[in-house]
Design goal:
By secondary structure, this protein is α+β, with helices and mostly antiparallel strands. It has a domain at about 85-240: Sortase (Sortase, Chain: A), CATH 2.40.260. The chain is built from four helices and eight strands; from the N terminus they run H-H-E-E-H-E-E-E-E-H-E-E. It has helices spanning about 1-5, 5-25, 105-110, 205-210; strands at about 85-90, 95-100, 115-120, 130-135, 155-160, 165-175, 220-225, 235-240.
């Protein structure tokens, strides 16, 4: 044992242990759910087949058989105002998380980490109301950390409380959105914010812009870029799928 602790042996052993640790970390998949109860996938929504009568020729067809009206499907009707969001899924990055409405300022400032949830902003609107629905979650595995990897065009599904599914597509991705908080302090080994935020406004104008109401239906998904808000916010915008 003493031989293993000699200087000539200690360094190789430490390097080997570090290598094993790096291998383990490298095998972690940030897109996989974290600790907590798993949720079933949200199904693809179905179109409601509402019959639409089209004009038919008068009299008989060429074969002597009269033509009949045809029916074509139309999209599902506008969501009922009583519906509330209960689950969100972004299959391309492995996000599948319950949704709650924040009602306390403490939850809006720093929501509980368990059970893993995404939160609708205090005073904000539920999805399907024809305006902006601002939904945020921690940048942690099992929450919104995989949002960092989302691509334009990615599908976002929202399950409503009555079983209806609303489908959106990612249309915008905005990293480095400034919204500093003087109550927060950076980590001791990171004494300055990201370079991209160096010339950003010193207030929360940028962050507040994305939480404001809109004149059309959209989701605004937000998570942090570091250990607190002073490292910038990561914003993803999704609009209803055509």
């Amino acid at each position: 044992m003493r031989r293993l602790l000699r200087p000539g042996f200690a360094v190789p052993i430490l390097l080997a242990l570090a290598g094993v640790a790096l291998i383990i970390v490298g095998q972690l998949d940030l897109d996989q759910p974290g600790i907590g109860p798993s949720l079933p996938p949200i199904p693809e929504p179905t179109q409601s087949g509402i019959a639409e009568v089209t004009a038919s020729p008068s009299g008989a067809g060429s074969a002597g058989v009269s033509a009949s009206p045809s029916a074509s499907p139309k999209p599902s009707p506008t969501p009922n105002p009583k519906w509330v969001a209960v689950q969100m899924q972004i299959p391309s990055v492995g996000i599948n998380i319950r949704v709650q409405k924040a009602t306390k300022k403490a939850d809006c400032d720093f929501p509980p980490e368990f059970p893993p949830s995404a939160w609708i902003l205090c005073g904000g609107q539920e999805p399907g109301r024809g305006t902006n629905s601002y939904i945020f979650a921690h940048a942690q595995v099992g929450m919104f950390l995989p949002l960092w990897n989302v691509q334009l065009g990615a599908e976002v599904r929202v399950l409503m409380s009555d079983g209806k599914v609303l489908v959106y597509r990612v249309t915008e991705v905005h990293p480095n959105v400034s919204c500093p908080d003087t109550r927060e302090k950076p980590m001791s080994y990171w004494t300055t914010p990201p370079l991209a935020l160096k010339y950003a406004p010193g207030d929360c104008r940028q962050g507040a812009f994305w939480s404001a109401p809109a004149n059309h239906e959209r989701l605004t998904l937000q998570t942090s870029q570091g250990y607190n808000r002073n490292w910038g916010e990561f914003i993803v915008v999704a609009e209803p799928r055509a």
